[in-house]
Amino acid sequence: MTPSDHPPSPPPSPDRLLQARAAQVADDERLRRDLWGSLVTRRRVLAGMAGAAASPLVTTRASFAAQATEGTLVVVFLRGGMDGLSAVVPADDPHLLEARPNLAVRSQSLLPLARGFGLHPSLAPLHELWKRGQLTAVPAVSTPDISRSHFQAQDCLERGGATTGTTEGWLDRVLDKLGPGTSFRSVAQGHGMQRALTGDQPSIALSEVAEFTIAGWEGIHDQTIEALGKLYTGVDPDLMHDVTTTLGALATVEQLAADTTATTTGYPEGDFGKGLAELARLVKAGTGLRVACIDLGDWDTHGHQGSVDGGLLKDQFERLSGGLAAFAADLGDKLSQVTVVVMTEFGRRIEENASAGTDHGHGAAVLLMGGKLNGGTIHGNWQGLAPEVRDQGDVPGSNDYRNVLGDVVTGRLGLSAADMASVFPDHRFQPLGIMA
Question: Rounded to an integer, what distance in angstroms lies between the CA atom of residue 360 and that of residue 362?
C-alpha cells in the first residue's frame, strides 16, 4: 500500500481542539507572567518610547545622542521631615539660640553661605560645590497649608497640588509636557514607584541595572527576544507597546553591562549610595534620562537629634552629603547637565523638645545641586524667626514649593512658564530666580 492509499486521518474532535487551544493559552500566559512578573510593579510602568519602531534595539540606541544633551532632573526626597534649621542655619539668630539651647548650631561651627546663613559642618562635602556655584538653597519652603502628618504632607508635595485636587504626580505632568523619549527617560530608583511619578506617563522602577532582566533566560537570550517580539504582535496596542519598550530597555541594559568605565567608588554604603551610583551610570551612558527620583529616609528626629559632635542628624547629614558629593564627582563634567533637588515634606518646629529633638513643623529647607544654578546666594523670602513671624510656632511657608520646582523645571528641562499652569494646575507660578 502506498502512502496515497492510506485513508485520511479523521479531523480532530471539537473537544481536542479546545484542549489544544487551552494549552496554548496557558503556555502564553506563563510566558507573559515570566516577562512581566520580573519587570513591572504596575501596568504601563515600562513604557517610554512613544511610537517605537519594530526594532527596539535601533530605536533606543538612536535616541541616546539626541536625549543626552537636554539635561536631567534628579529629585531626592528626604522622608521624615529634615530639620532645615540645622542644615541651612540662620547663623547667630537670637530667637533660634533661645529656642534651641542644646541643639542650635553655633556660628563658629558653620560653613559660610550667604545672607547670614551657614551650612552644617557635617554637610562639608557639599561646600566645595557651593564655592563653584553648583550648590544653593531655599529656606522656609512649604505646602500651602500646614499639615504635620507625614502622609498628607508627602502626598501634597508629590502631587504638586494643594490639600485636595490633582491626583497624578507632578513629575508625571512634567513628562507629559516633555513628550516622548527613550525607554529610560524616567526612572524611579529603588524598590517601588515614587508618588511624584504616578499617573499616565510610563516610568521604570529600577533598583540595579544588572537586575533588570528576564528570569530564567540564560542560554536562550536571542530565542526569548525573538519569541516575545512575535508573541504580542497584533494584540492589544497598549500591551504591545509595553513589550516593545521593555525589549528596548533590556537592550539598553545590555549596552550598560558592556561598559567597563562605570565608576561606583566613593559612594557611602547602603541603598542611597548604590542608587545614586546607578543614576550616574545612566546619565554617563547617555540613555536619555530626563527625570529620576530617589529617597533617603529616617529624618524624623523627635529625640537624640544632636548638634555638631554627634546624634542622629549628624549621621544623616554625612550620609546625604557623602552620597551627593560622590554623585557629583562621578559625573564630572556631566554634572553641568544635571540638576538635583533635595526636598522633604516639612521642617521641624523652632523649639527643641524635652527629648533632645524637634517635632513636626512647617517651613523646610530645599537644597539644589548641579548645573545651571544661579549660585553664590540663598534664594527666596526669609523673614527670620521672631515670634510675630512664626506660623503657629513654626518656620512660615514663605516660599511655595511649586515656585521652587517650577524654577528648576523651566530652567533645567526647558518647559515654559506657561507650561507650569498644567504642571501645577491650582497655582500661579512665580519664579524665584534659582536657575541661571
Answer: 7
Instruction: Give counts: helices (H), strands (E), the chain.
Output: 13, 11
Q: What is the mean pLDDT of residues 235-264?
A: 63
Q: Is 426 exposed, middle or buried (0-12, 13-18, 19+ CB in 10 A)?
A: middle
Instruction: Name every residue whose Cβ is closer than 8 Å to that of residue 171 and which is 6 or more positions away in sequence.
Output: 75, 160, 186, 196, 197, 291, 293
d(CA 285, CA 44): 24
Q: CA 153 to CA 413: how far, in whole Å?
A: 25
Of 189, 166, 419, the residue nearest 323 (C-alpha): 189
Closest CA to 349 of 340, 361, 357: 361
User: What single-letter DSSP state applies at residue 90?
Assistant: E
Q: What is the percent of the chain with per-residue pLDDT over 90, rounded to a whole number?
A: 63
Grid coordinates given for 392: 503657629
pLDDT digits (tens, 9 = 90+) for 293-316: 999 999 999 999 999 999 999 999
